[in-house]
Amino acid sequence: MSLRGRERAVVPVAQVMEFLMLACGQTLFALQADMVRSVIRPEEGDAEGILSTFGIATPAVHLSERFGLTGSYLSQESRIVVCGTQAAHVAFRVDGVLGLHDIDATKIKSLLPHFTGPERRWIAGMFSFQQTIALILHTRWLLSDDRGSRALSSPSLEPHGHRPEALSPTIMDVATDQRDTLDWNEIEFEEVTDADDTPWAQI
């Protein structure tokens, strides 16, 4: 209470998360910014040498191939993204990088409950971005060996293989676990006129 006898209003501080926005075909993905180590142009003369500094000896495959799909390598805006921790790194190609963007954490939603398959290993959440939906990549999955046909083979919510102790849960991982406990019956949804137009339908 102030000297004038009035209570001071407490203004809540919004939690903001920073993401690197990635384009993969017509679908937008978001990668937690603090996991990004480098963004490389594929035509750079020493791209393989740069990857080797992160302990990456294999060529960077297209992100679509991580989902068991076929990726295009023809985009002139294609980039190689390196992400990881001190203990493990991974590189993959995308069709374009849209830069860093701050997102209000309250705007991030978890996948709808009818998504019960491998997509819950791939996607940590989603939010509205530039009149479409951006899907947040699950960093623990990206750093695992769960890719290609194997990415589609198991309904398990955790990535395949042993998870190194160094891959401790990120802020996004913790937030995902908290959102997955929400009661969807208490959440109101906006009416969508044509769900086939959403980017998720194109994955």
Structure description:
- The chain contains five helices and nine strands, in the order βββαβαβββαββαα.
- It has 203 residues and is α+β, with helices and mostly antiparallel strands.
- The protein has one domain.
- Strands 7-1-2-9-8 form a five-stranded mixed β-sheet.
- The N and C termini lie far apart (54 Å).
Main sheet: strand order: 7-1-2-9-8
Q: Main sheet? A: 5 strands, mixed
Query: Which percent band covers the strand fraction?
Result: 25-35%
State the helical fraction: 10-25%
Form type: globular
- End-to-end Cα distance: 54 Å
Total discrete domains: 1
Which structural class best describes the helix and strand composition? Answer: alpha+beta
**Radius of gyration, taken over Cα atoms and rounded to an integer in Å:** 19 Å
How many strand units? 9
Q: DSSP helix count?
A: 5
Mean pLDDT equals 75
SSE arrangement, N to C: EEEHEHEEEHEEHH
Q: Uncertain runs with pLDDT below 50, 5 residues or more? A: 149-171, 181-193, 198-203
Give a short overview.
This protein has five helices and nine strands, in the order βββαβαβββαββαα.
Break the fold down into its secondary structure elements and pairings.
Blueprint: E1 16-24, E2 27-32, E3 36-40, H1 47-52, E4 61-62, H2 63-66, E5 79-84, E6 89-94, E7 96-104, H3 119-122, E8 123-129, E9 132-137, H4 139-142, H5 171-179
Parallel strand pairs: 2-9, 4-6
Antiparallel strand pairs: 1-2, 1-7, 3-5, 5-6, 8-9
